[in-house]
Amino acid sequence: MLNRTEAPALKEISAVQLPSAEVTTFPNKSRLHRIFNSTQPILKFEIVLKAGKWYEPYNGIAYLAAKMLLEGTQQYSARQIADIIAFYGASLESNQSFDRTSITLYTLTKHFDPLIELLGEILFAPTFPEKEFELLKIRTIQNISVEKKKNAYLANQLFTRNFYGPNHPYATGMDEVILNQITLPEIKDFYHTHYNLSEAEIFICGDFSSEDILKVESLFGKAGVHQESMASKEYKPLGIIKKDFLVKEDSLQSSIRVGSAWPAMNHPDYHKLALLNKILGGYFGSRLMKNIREDKGFTYGIYSTISVKEHHNLFFIATDVNYQNTQQTLDEIYREVNLLKSELVETSELQTVQNYIVGKLANDLSTIFDQSEKYKNIILHQLPLTFYSNYINAIKSVTPEELNLLANRYYILDSFYEAVVGKPVD
Questions:
Q1: Which of 51, 52, 111, 246 is an S-S bond match for 99, by CB 3.0 to 4.6 Å?
Q2: Three-state DSSP state, 130
Q3: What are the chain's domains?
Q4: What is the pLDDT of residue 140?
Q5: Are strands 42-49 and 243-247 parallel, antiparallel or unpaired?
């Protein structure tokens, strides 16, 4: 019998394992990745296309194209599509990211057949109705206007545009004037060029049958190649302004962004650098949080993160503080970075962060859908299937001396970019 007066013994997590996926290449060169799990009668189906910001001729087209897919097809209006999805208690979304566009369906297994037919209709027969297109642009422009009143939004935009350049696809934010000038023929042209199943990665995860797989192949494995996709442009970070301050006289808070370029996920140093970032500002017990939140009381939260993309990674620190504490906060940020370069991390702190990372990864793999997301990450970034096992091994084996070397190799303050939005101190 379980003794509830005693806490369970601690167990060390020595490894994590993703479920194996069966991969099939269809006649149209798209690939289907199958991860079967019948624990619950549910499944997730996702089509991932090379149709993100990286491939758009100018900012806003990829976003509008993704959203217009659900605005009407040859058989259904936008309202009818929404009603069908609601009737089956399912979820269907079309979302654009920096690199890809994903069409994602969550459903009970028993409803997969009619909903996959609907998804096929949405992907292959969108009508791009003019009225819905104009309304979408109006809503999007209104949302941008609201976001531009927020310092955090402006700081992200300023930081990424100064680092990458204003026309780089990884620069955040959209321009209302440019967005308003986008025409429906441009959206259709982007759709016909980049919604190309010959380069699609298709994922199905959960409780599915062999008949379901045959249905997927019949709908998405033999058709849907509009034309050969145009090669994506080559972009390089421009590095326009190292330190920038956008004045907002009516603001009592400043939004701060500080960061630099970061190695790709397949770089030998990536795993151990992830631990170094956690120590600096990657979790609630980080050094930045203890210093600037707990000790100084300047902010409710400060974090450092790695913005991972397929073509370039970016490390940055972000926080919001009272405008009078802006410079002192920047000083403390650089102080913490320099401490990692000048002093060895204590063993107790290292062990705490190691346990946190390993435990969080295990928690992030708690459901089959979580596991499929990690697997998808491996596929889209062209990583080895052992990526997460290698991650655990690297985290558990890193030494304070290695972290010190990495800090001196990658935390080069002269290469840091700094963006602040707020009220200057008189």
A1: 52
A2: helix
A3: 22-220 (3.30.830.10), 243-422 (3.30.830.10)
A4: 96
A5: unpaired
* Strand, coil or helix: 24: strand
Q: What is the dihedral of CA 34, 38, 42, 46, to 10 degrees?
A: -10
Q: Coil, strand or helix: which one is 59?
A: coil
Give dist(CA 311, CA 239) in Å, integer: 16
Single out the residue of 281, 275, 269 nearest to residue 354, CA to CA. 275
Q: Are the C-beta atoms of residues 160 and 170 closer than 8 Å to each other?
A: yes
Give pTM, 2 decimals.
0.91
H-helix segments, 184-321: 184-194, 210-220, 270-277, 287-288
CB 249 within 8 A of CB 323: no
116 touches 45 (CB < 8 A): yes
DSSP bridge pairs for 72 = 77
228-234 contact pairs (CB < 8 A, 24+): 228/196, 228/198, 229/50, 229/55, 229/193, 229/194, 229/196, 229/198, 229/199, 230/55, 230/193, 230/194, 232/50, 232/54, 232/55
Q: Centre a 10 Å sphere on the Cβ of residue 46 and count the other Cβ atoms it contains.
A: 21
To the nearest 10 degrees (0 to 180), the angle between helices 326-342 and 400-410 is: 130
More confidently predicted of 8 and 97: 97
**pLDDT tens per residue, range 321-356:** 999 999 999 999 999 999 999 999 999 999 999 999
Whose tokens are 């930045």? That residue is 288
Q: Please, what is the average pLDDT of the chain?
A: 93
Q: Which H helix or E strand runs over 404?
A: helix 400-410
